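Feature request disguised as a bug report, sorry. It would help if multi-protein outputs had a clear separator. Right now it looks like this:
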Amino acid sequence: MKNIKRVAVALMLCILLAPNLMVAHAAYNPYPNTQTINDVTTIPCTYFAWTAAYNDMGVELPAFGDAKNWYYAAKNAGYHVGPDVRENSIAVWDGASYGHVAYVTSYYEDVDNNEKYMVISHGGISYEGKPYGGNGVKTGDIRRAEVGSKTGRGDTLLGYIYLNEPRSELLANADKVRPLYASCNHNLTDWSVIVDGVCNEEGYKQRYCTKCHGYERELIEGTNHKFKKYTEFAYDGEEVILNICEVCETIVVGSVEEHEHQFTEWERKRYPTIDQDGYLVRHCTYPDCNVDEVQTEEALGIYPTLYLIPIECFVCALFMGANIFFEMKSKRNNN
């Protein structure tokens, strides 16, 4: 009997907690996570390089097609590309089939021979007819870093896609994006954020047409500064208030100026029940403003219809009904 009650309680808790257990949507990798070539199944180099760029640098690349297309597709999309090896960049090789891409973790120079080498991590690697390491991913691999150098299978190094460009250069490259063709019946990918809007500075996002290979760009509004208040003392002992932005480190001396509140959407904190008011809250997002607004919803009293019963009350009713049921059944069994 106790076990049955515990099951009932667990089910009710699941109903209550289910909305809070939802996982936030992760970034979308446009490449498949497996490929089979010559009967060998591996994690593709494109999937691995895209994931490494996102995990290490927070860069959500658009779909560039086969690996050999990445260099010029990235250039057309406004990313900075070039011939010099850098840490946290993507190396791109051309080839007769699909080409190859790899994530560059570091590099070094052989001074005696005047050569550069890069240390890479990449997918799509097979060895003796089997996926390398069981999944085709190899880390700590060393390759020649000069443009034009070739791999063992004959792919030619085209150059590098740079992922850690300064904000100013990324914004400058935005004007170099190839636009959509007006006559094309576009097949557009999802939006990718190239530069976030921060601290009153606009950013931009873009999406790619897989038919005309052009890009559509859209501005992202800049956000307000995120000030944190500090109290300092001048040489004469006078108290000075400093407001320092946690994002761009802009400093404002003194109190932040008067402003019109910029409220978030209402967020429900409690539903109204039979005898208890519910309420919603919204917050002002203006820097250094701590104003909250509360909106109260009166207790519902006697419900005119079942559809108005909040979920909390419905769950409570189920608990009470189940408890009465088990008690009555227990009494009958005892008699």
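(second protein starts here, but nothing in the output says so)
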Amino acid sequence: MAECREADLKKKMEADNLSGVYFLYGEEKYMVAHWAHRLIKKAAGKEFLDFNLQQFAGDVTADDLDDAVQALPLMAERKCVSVSDLTLEGRTPAENKKLLELLRNVPESTVLVLYFASSSPEIRKDKKWKSVFAACMEQGTCVQCAQRTQTELEKLLMRTAEKRGCRLARPEANQIYRYVGNNMTALLNEMEKVCAFAGSGDISPGMIDQMVTRNLETRIFDLSRALLAGQHDRAYQILNQLLEQNEEPVRILAVLSGAYIDLYRVRTALQSGETALEPAAHFEEYKRREFRLTNAERDIRHLSTQKLRQSLDVLLQADLDLKGSRTDSRIILERTLTRLMLIAGGEEENA
């Protein structure tokens, strides 16, 4: 057997063609959990679940897991054994050896499901995980749930709204994506809130503004836009809200610095004759998050490279002050916002 796509796994379940060991992993944790639960339900059947379904946490011993895998099903063709977020750390060499042996000898009467909805096994770097993954590839099926693209997630939001009797247009789907980010679990949770509020019919931008909880990155983006536009009251209001919600000052500064780094990278790319998306070819952090670069392109029109360098110097100094000064963190952040606005407005030449 080998690695298969999510669509192929769906076909296997529909055809009731399940056997051996299944290894479900990937960046999209929501889908890992989704497919694992569907697979477990299908493999275990509906009768005598006390006997035909055994579920374990990641620290299960190799002996306990082997006993469960080798036990026969009760009045059924097969049983299901599942392990969520299997761990290898702390296991003896003998235990790891036994684990590999049982993975290579799963009986036909058992479907073993290993799924990683909360952790990410180092199958490319760690030798022990490489061996486990190789055994699953040889004797079973490995399914990687890749992170969805922005387009895929926006379409998912639109389909979710439709199922609940609402209509979500593409611009509004993009608005939710920008507010929440690419975490599928968070996106669907926010979509449920909006649909419950709307009841039925069209979902408006105002509803989204009112109901959707913006992630830290989105709120910092709003803060950076307020700074660049010289909107003093708006900038301090956002900062106050973040601090009142117990966001760590160091974290606030780190995300704000990231927004200015986006601006600087886009500015230098454009000056070099490239497009604003050029940094995505060099920095992994923009993978499926290219909107950060398009947003930056929109916001740098009146900012020179020199102003951006001054701003980055101010942010660096603020980082040093937060980590090494006894000055109150709120004062450091407020002073930093003031200096950034002065630079953007051309009023501070020597930041």
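Even a blank line would do. Unrelated, but nice: The chain has a mean pLDDT of 91.
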